[in-house]
C-alpha cells in the first residue's frame, strides 16, 4: 500500500519522511554488504590483501622489536629413525638366556629336587645346542680351507708341524742371510755381567753361522773373552735407552734405523724368529715407537 502511495505522489514533491526512509534503506543495505564481506572466508582474499594483513599484523602485534629484528630460522624437525626389528633368533636366544638364569637362581635359593631338575633339564638343552653348533662349524671349516687355522696358520698334526717348522726355519735363515749384507747386531754388555758372558759365545757362533756382523759395545769400558776389543759406549746406549744388559739391537747403518731385538740371553731360534718378525713389511707400523733413527752409524 505504501508503494502505491509513493507511485501516485509527484516526484518533485517527495516528503521528508520519504527521504528518511530511503536513507534508512541505504544504510541497511550497506550494513548487509559489510556483514557479507566480513563473513567471507580468508581464503577468498587476494594475495595482496593477505600480504598487507600479515605485515601489518606482525608489526602491530610485536612493534617493540622494530622492523629490522632478525630471528634464527626454526630448526628442521628430524623424524625418529625406524626402530630396528631384531631377528627372531636373537629374541629366542635372549629368552633362553633369561630362562637359564632364572632357573639357576631359583635352584640356588631353593635347592629342591624339582628346582634342580628344572635347571639341569634346560642346561642339557643348551649343551645340546652348543654341540650342534660345534659340529656344523667343524663341517664348514673342513669344506672351506681359508677358514681352517691349521691350514692357514700353524698346524697341529705332528707330521705337518715338522714341515711347517722346517719351512719357517728356512725362511728365517734366508732373511738373516740377506740382512747380513746391510745390517749388524749391536750387542751392549758389561764386563762384570754373568749373563753377558753366557750370551757372548752364542752371538759369536751366530755371526759365524749366518754372517750377520756382531758389534760389541761395552758400557763399562771392559771386554769379554769373545770380544776383547769392543767399542766403547759413546752415548748411544743412552740414546737407545739401554737400561739393562745384555741388550741386542738390529742396526741398519745406511738409513740409521735401529730396532730392538731383546734383552737377556736369547737362543739361536729366538734370535732368528725375532729378527724375522721385526724385518717383515710394515712391521714398523705395528709398533712405531720401538724403532729409532740415529744418524752417522759406523760399524768400525
Structure overview:
The chain is of the alpha/beta class and 300 residues long. Among the domains are: 88-153; 180-293, Glutaredoxin. It contains 11 helices and 6 strands. The protein has helices spanning 2-8, 16-39, 47-61, 88-109, 113-143, 149-152, 158-179, 194-210, 236-239, 268-278, 283-286, and strands spanning 184-189, 213-218, 231-232, 247-252, 257-263, 292-293. A 6-stranded mixed sheet has the order 3-2-1-4-5-6. Strand 4 (247-252) and strand 5 form a beta hairpin. Mean pLDDT is 80; it is low at 1-16, 30-34 and 37-53.
CATH superfamily of the domain at 180-293: Glutaredoxin
Proportion of residues in β-strands: 5-15%
Count the DSSP helices.
11
Secondary structure class reads alpha/beta
Q: Would you identify the regions where 5 or more consecutive residues have pLDDT less than 50?
A: 1-16, 30-34, 37-53
Order of SSEs = HHHHHHHEHEEHEEHHE
As laid out across the biggest beta sheet, the strand order is: 3-2-1-4-5-6
Give the arrangement of secondary structure elements.
Blueprint: H1 2-8, H2 16-39, H3 47-61, H4 88-109, H5 113-143, H6 149-152, H7 158-179, E1 184-189, H8 194-210, E2 213-218, E3 231-232, H9 236-239, E4 247-252, E5 257-263, H10 268-278, H11 283-286, E6 292-293
